[in-house]
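Operator note (shift B, R.M.): manual run for Phosphotriesterase-related protein requested after the automated queue skipped it. Running by hand, logging everything below so the morning shift can see what happened. Input copied straight from the record, untouched. If output looks odd, do not overwrite the archive copy; leave it for review.
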Amino acid sequence: ELSNIGLGRDPAALARISRATGLNVIMGSGYYLAVSHGPEMDAKTEEEITDEIVRDIMVGVGNSGIRSGIIGEIGCSWPLADNERKCLRAAARAQQLTGAALNVHPGQSEEAAMEIVKILDDAGADLTRTVIDHIDRAVRNPENRIKLAKTGCYLEYDLFGREGYYPIHHRIIDLPNDAQRINEITELINKGYLNQMLISQDIWNKAQRCAYGGWGYAHILRDTLPVMRVKGMTEEQIHTIMVENPRRLLTFI
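Run finished. Output pasted below as returned.
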């Protein structure tokens, strides 16, 4: 659950949901997009932001005693704001200090993902424990997907259930449908990147829930996996994407 600082993160609510459902809920840390930063961000140093993230993971958020289990979703606009660059570098340092995985939201440009990866790499991040989100809207060029995969990071297709187009800042971004997403994932698997594939639904508003006409939280399990099988994905490949890759990523090292 990657709601972090600036997105209304609620550790007590997540713990309550976890206890009530029996689900393991992994809480995020760090900062989202610059537009969600508080006025104090300009004066914060990278070291201060790093310390905040490390404390969230090692001690707990505030006085809750509830600890984060992943760094992210670190928000990046396009072009990147200076404070977002600062937060990326701080997140990379916190990853080194904690062994936690790092998750990043790229901006609305085909160039965004590789710029983020370069900043993180220069700051000492472990790219093999770094996730670039929203591949299905951020990296539409097949050659760029291969270039990104070669860095060793995880590629997350996390807009399952959404298709058509995505209006943003007076632009229209085309979105693939779920069948096209599966085709792209299969192409990446065939090129040797199975162990870097992740999938999700990026549920963030009421309209995506069943009660409001959306696919709901079960869409991947209920609807997507059968299509993967029909399209020729093996049970071993599905298990790797659904179980092995997330487990490896979320295990502290």
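Quick read of the result: The two ends are 20 Å apart (CA to CA). The chain is about 40% helix and 10% strand.
Leaving this for review. - R.M.
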